[in-house]
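Worked example 3 (structure in, sequence out).
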């Protein structure tokens, strides 16, 4: 608005100048013209000597006063044209103000978009930070899994190596009738024992593990059924099975099935 008032004041000043110029002092002479515009001339004192009419006036022996007269034509514009120019300038000013307001609105819209973009960027940065943290945690889990897999693979290879060296042998010990067992007495109890030595078909590289169970038995029905098996003196060459019964038990036959296997580390 200050710019608009400045232009209006400038236009009024120009109009005032032309009005003052048209009503000049008594020493201003109007020159008739056949044109629509009015021309005036006035005395104009200048210090140059190349004017059309110059006069000199001695002041003393060393100084003189030089007066030159020339004509200057001033073209006076019509007042309505000045008003029209002022109005045109006001219209242009209004257009500029309208464009300025529109640019301000556009600027506010751009500022809003910029704020939205900044908020989106902040959100993306936050999501990216969370994603990076998750990826790092998953990388740690993956590294742990890799180490566990390497350890498991090593164990599997060791088991495979042991399995490759494992050897198994099995068989049956026939203890026959308890009447053929050797009779012993301990604390008033009669025990009958038979020792059966088992030799492996070929020696083991390590002392094997031996276990077994009863395979078949034929016991007298008129007596209680009592029996016991023991495995001892195990070596890489074989072992000893102890067949045992006691009291009045009568066994017509009893078989013991065994299995020997290389121990797994």
């Amino acid at each position: 608005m200050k710019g608009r008032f400045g232009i209006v004041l400038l236009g009024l000043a120009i109009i005032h100048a032309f009005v003052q110029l048209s009503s000049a002092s008594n020493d201003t002479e109007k020159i008739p013209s056949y044109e629509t515009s009015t021309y005036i001339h006035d005395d104009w004192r200048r210090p140059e000597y190349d004017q059309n009419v110059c006069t000199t006036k001695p002041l003393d022996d060393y100084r003189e006063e030089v007066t030159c007269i020339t004509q200057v034509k001033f073209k006076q514009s019509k007042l309505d044209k000045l008003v029209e120019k002022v109005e045109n300038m006001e219209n242009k000013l209004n257009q500029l103000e309208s464009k300025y307001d529109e640019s301000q609105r556009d600027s506010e819209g751009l500022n809003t978009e910029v704020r939205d973009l900044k908020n989106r960027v902040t959100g993306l940065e936050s999501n990216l930070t969370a994603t990076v943290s998750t990826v790092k945690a998953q990388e740690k889990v993956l590294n742990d899994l890799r180490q566990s897999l390497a350890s498991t693979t090593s164990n599997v290879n060791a088991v495979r190596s042991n399995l490759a060296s494992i050897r198994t042998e099995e068989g049956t010990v026939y203890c026959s009738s308890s009447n053929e067992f050797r009779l012993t007495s301990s604390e008033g109890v009669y025990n009958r024992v038979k020792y059966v030595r088992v030799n492996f078909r070929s020696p083991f590289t390590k002392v094997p593990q031996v276990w077994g169970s009863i395979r078949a038995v034929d016991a007298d029905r008129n007596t209680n059924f009592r029996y016991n098996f023991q495995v001892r003196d195990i070596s890489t060459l074989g072992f000893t099975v102890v067949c045992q019964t006691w009291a009045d038990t009568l066994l017509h036959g009893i078989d013991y099935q065994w299995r020997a296997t290389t121990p797994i580390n």
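Notes: The longest strand covers residues 189-199. Confidence is low (pLDDT under 50) at residues 1-10, 15-49.
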